[in-house]
Structure formats: structure tokens, C-alpha cells
């Protein structure tokens, strides 16, 4: 597994490459005759309608004198206009002129073509991951600059089948288990089959799937099979949390939903299989009452591993 230093260096390298590819090392940006800071000012004014010089200082991360010179240049070029008269110039609303809106349209067309060309190399699910990761990264950088905590979108827990969930759960498993323990096609196929098996029986009591959602993105899931192991026993299957959600309590929330459901359904025990070495998951299982019953070498996941069998008995 890469160290934190390795990951930070890789993110830095990717950031430098993106800055070069987007053209931030050139004196002008996005096919205009303007500097990157001027183009960003035009874009932000176009998105928000009106802004003040004070607003732009915070948004662009520039000092007051730099923003003042920038706005003078854009005003003289006929790109923006100042609304109102008198008072503190820093607090007067600014907006794009007709010329500024034409410039914005040209910038948008240029940028959409540039980003669209890169996006064409990704499948839709991959592109969603790229979008979410870049957004989180950008938000964290801004929060660090301002000295505030990054805003976190609320994660909601939903139940039942949703279109695409079988493939999405399998993809989440592979994103974690392929690099962590080297699982491949056999494991992915087994996960997809398990999700398909449970979701096909959701109309019968004792079977359920939970989905942790961040916006429209699946970031965690777990399923209970209430039929495959006999009366009174629930089989916990396909438990996974997106690695980017670490530390946000997603796994614990999913397991709490499972325990509540199984107790309400009257299951006397919940059983699960995992593999040795997944210490974080094992710790979470033990926190909610699972205990190791047995472990032995096995190959049901496609490669030799030490498989562990855990059971949680319903509290008396």
C-alpha cells in the first residue's frame, strides 16, 4: 500500500500536470487575451450575476491591490461595469457587460471542449468518481486557505434496489480489494452474483440491501440474506464502503441499520465471512458484537487467503 507521503507526492504531480495542461503557465488563458486571474473573474461574475471587489478577493485568493488592478483592466476593456455611484468602490456591485457575456460564452465553449476531450476517455461511472474526487480536493484546498473545515455533503442511507446498484457495488469492492489484496475476476463475479441474488428476493421477508448515497453517488452498501443459511440466521453479505469516505462513520451507520433490521426480524444470529488482514473492517465488526468463530485457508474469493467466519448473536 502506498504511504501518505507517496500519495501526497502523486497528487502534487497530478496538480502540476493539470495546471500545465489547462494553460495556467501561459500569460493568457482559455483562448482569450486575458490572464488566468482575469478569466476567473469573468467566469465567477457570469456564474453569480453580481459580485463586489471584496467578494473577488475571497473567491480568487488574491490581495486587494491585485484585484483592484484586475478590475480596472476589465472595466477599461469593456468586459465589466460598476453598478451605482458614490460610496466605497470595494463594495459596489460589478456585473458583466454584453461584451463580457460574449467573452464568457467563448471561455465556456473552449473549456467544455478541453474537458470534454479528456472526459471521453472515461466510462460514465469512472467520470462520476473523477468529478467527486476533484470537487472534494478543490473544496479541501479552499478550506485550508480560509482556515475553515471543508463542507461535507450529507450522506443518506436508502434501502432496496436501485438501477445500476449491482454493478456499482461490485465496482466499489474492486476499487478497494483489487489493490489491497489482489482480488480479481472471480471475486468481482461473486460479489455481483451475491448482490443480484439478494435483490431478486427483496419481495420476501428477511432480505434487504442498504445503500449509502452521497448525492447520486453510491459510497457504501451492505445486504442481508435471510434465507440462505436456514431459519433464524441472517447472512451479512457484500459490505463495502468507498475508501474516500473513511472517517465519516458510513460503515458504522450501515451496520447499525443491519443490526436494527435483523433484531426486528427476529434473527437469532448474523453470520459473515471475511479474510484475515482487513483490520479496519474486523475492528468495526467486533465493535457491533461480532466474534471470530473460526479461520482457515480457503480460495473461495479466487486466490489463497485465510478466511474468517464471524457470528453476532442477538442480545438477550
UniProtKB/TrEMBL annotation:
A molecular function (GO) term: N-acetyltransferase activity
Superkingdom per UniProt: Bacteria
UniProt domain N-acetyltransferase: residue ranges: 153-315
Domain HTH marR-type: 4-139
Alphabetical UniProt keywords: DNA-binding, Transferase
InterPro entries associated with the record: Acyl_CoA_acyltransferase, GNAT_dom, HTH_MarR-typ, NAT_camello-type, WH-like_DNA-bd_sf, WH_DNA-bd_sf
SMART domains in alphabetical order: HTH_MARR
CDD domains: NAT_SF
Pfam families (UniProt xref): Acetyltransf_1, MarR_2
Name of this protein: DNA-binding transcriptional regulator, MarR family
Organism of origin: Dyella marensis
